[in-house]
Design brief:
globular; binds alpha-methylisocitric acid; 26 helices; binds iron/sulfur cluster; alpha/beta; 18% strand
Amino acid sequence: MAFDLDMIKKVYDNYGPRIAAARKVVGKPLTLTEKILYSHLWDGNATEAHERGVTYVDFAPDRVAMQDATAQMALLQFMQAGRPTVAVPSTVHCDHLIQAKIGAIEDLATANTQNKEVFDFLASVSDKYGIGFWKPGAGIIHQVVLENYAFPGGMMIGTDSHTPNAGGLGMIAIGVGGADACDVMAGLAWELKFPKLIGVKLTGKLSGWTSAKDVILKVAGILTVKGGTGAIVEYFGEGARSLSATGKGTICNMGAEIGATTSVFGYDEKIATYLKGTEREEIAKLADQVKEHLTGDEEVYSNPDKYFDQVIEIDLSTLEPHVNGPFTPDMAWPISKFAAAVKENGWPQTLEVGLIGSCTNSSYEDISRAASVAEQAVNKKLVAKAEFTITPGSELVRYTVERDGYLDTFEKMGGVVLANACGPCIGQWARHSDDPTRKNSILTSFNRNFKSRNDGNPNTHAFVASPEIVTAMTIAGDLSFNPLTDTLINSDGVQVRLEEPQGLEMPIKGYEVEDAGFQAPAKDGTKVNVIVDPNSSRLQLLDPFKAWEGTDIKGLKLLIKAKGKCTTDHISMAGPWLKFRGHLDNISNNMLIGATNFFNDKADTVKNQLNGEYGAVPATARAYKAQGIGSIVVGDENYGEGSSREHAAMEPRHLGVRAILVKSFARIHETNLKKQGMLGLTFADNNDYDKIREDDTIDITGLNDFTPGKPLSIVLHHIDGTSDTFNVNHTYNQQQIEWFKAGGALNIIRMNQNG
Ligand code: MIC
Ligand code: SF4
């Protein structure tokens, strides 16, 4: 038994008194989200109502989950906290570092050799500090957590932005940077601005080609990539109760793409069935006893406008399948309008590769529905026109769907089954392409489709849809094909139609697995040695960052004024760079290489003000740093959208950038900057973005009086001798200001540890 029943009992025992206290202070019916949040307050019972979107609140999460690519930094920081074991149940999952090239078995073997040093490091740190370790091949973090650890009404944090997947089982699960995970594992409180609440009422029932994925593709279209920022999305209504638990997981998972803090569903029959089917009947029994606390109050759901900050209603019965993209997950197209959009926009109509699976869409239900489409292709003599890959989310799912013949069906259709890992979703994909300069299209059932993400090729137009739609379009090899209305010609020259997909929520014969891939930690970890080779190119122990100098910061050089979308993939690219996630100096060589320079529209080409020459962003930052000169990065809206990777904050910190000044931030990235002692600032007036010139030298003033809620000032010294001064805002609270002054939150933990 991997999960911790005693911990869950304790959480549920607290529910009654804590929710009673919350009711008193809030003074009105409660949403599910409020119930879970108020039950997880760091100091126990609520004594005051928290203002949504305003007050910072300390929470006590029940669990921490980390994946290999972010766990390295999280654990390198944790090792400095001086604790013998982690304070809350925690797990590490090896999933991001496995490259997809040939197929599951070969690729896993290669990954185990290539990443041996890192996997050994993660295994030994886990062993030493009491952390559960899921070996490479065990599966993708979110699917493994859903199958083993997620429980209704719980609260967890995870060092990955798609941690909200566990919301499918009724858990408040939030993506964070490694420094946040480090705090919680070290026994400290975890702080979050009390979120705003978005209610999504689902009516009707899914049918035909439409699936849970289409709910979130539609929501993304409504809310856009920044519409959920600072909010938790709560799904309710008869439609919500009709969705399978794993379908709910898909919706919550991809909720990361609208910037939501997390998403959650209430406990219901479907969740209970899934818990029972994954050998956690005890949890379902316990949850049944506190059922009334594991959903929102009746009155809230009958009058949602009164209790949520925003309400959206979606009728599942009339919802169409969607295809979103390219380059951004919120460009939503109902399938009936997609073919025209492809033509009007001149997107490459030929579909070259279809990819299904990943952490958000690899449940038994997803695979069985997609397989029912693949089977038709085989039976109806249709030859798939595009390449096809399948990424199972976990060994439990993979073993079971292999037993039930689905993988065989995919292979008959020409599909290649990849390892249970992130693979192509995070650019770990050695795509075979004859000409990378050709514009081309791919379609995935993944979450994100930012430029260059999957195969490192900016010419690839990536679209996102449900696994069944991806499978159908792969067969057609054409983005203008609509399986709901169109026919295809088979190898006998006969016109055939693909019937609606059929699937099963759960395997009739139950789930099965031989080796799920779990390794429990040592009972006594004191004797376990963790070794980091000082000459390693993959791992590097961390040196503390310097504390604030105690004065205004003057004479900064503009490093880059980024234009348009600047996601964490642009700031710290994944794919080939994932191998340096444990080595800050080496990974810093990818800093901002994907961002577009406002002044020349080029990526990775900025002016070095010291010699007037254009060069790469990391090299230019290093040149300033070598002269003892700080720099500043300027950006646009929703800067740092996407991943939880704190490398996107640590790299600029390491290379001498002192402040990131943007129109708006994505939540996790803003917190990551604060944690690392950086200044994350926003324009008080967005028009001031236009005042920033390529040769500017910049001062940040007001720091001696750095106070919550009080703007700071920016002075731009232009090269022609003129200057501009304007205010910039920040969201630092008192504690976060202390992090800035100390040079980073970890320096404070270190100071406390040394007395
Ligand atoms: C992603 O989907 O972008 C990732 C790769 O899983 C990231 C984590 C990382 O960068 O390691 C995320 O979602 O946080
Ligand atoms: Fe892995 Fe992709 Fe899921 Fe991120 S979104 S955890 S890269 S499968």
